[in-house]
Amino acid sequence: MAWAYLFLAGLFEVGWAVGLKFTDGFSRPLPTALTVASMIVSLGLLGLALKNLPLGTAYAVWTGVGTVGTVMLGIMLFGEAADALRLACIGLIVAGIVGLKLVTPAA
Question: Where are the transmembrane segments (predicted)?
Answer without folding.
Answer: 33-50, 57-78, 84-103
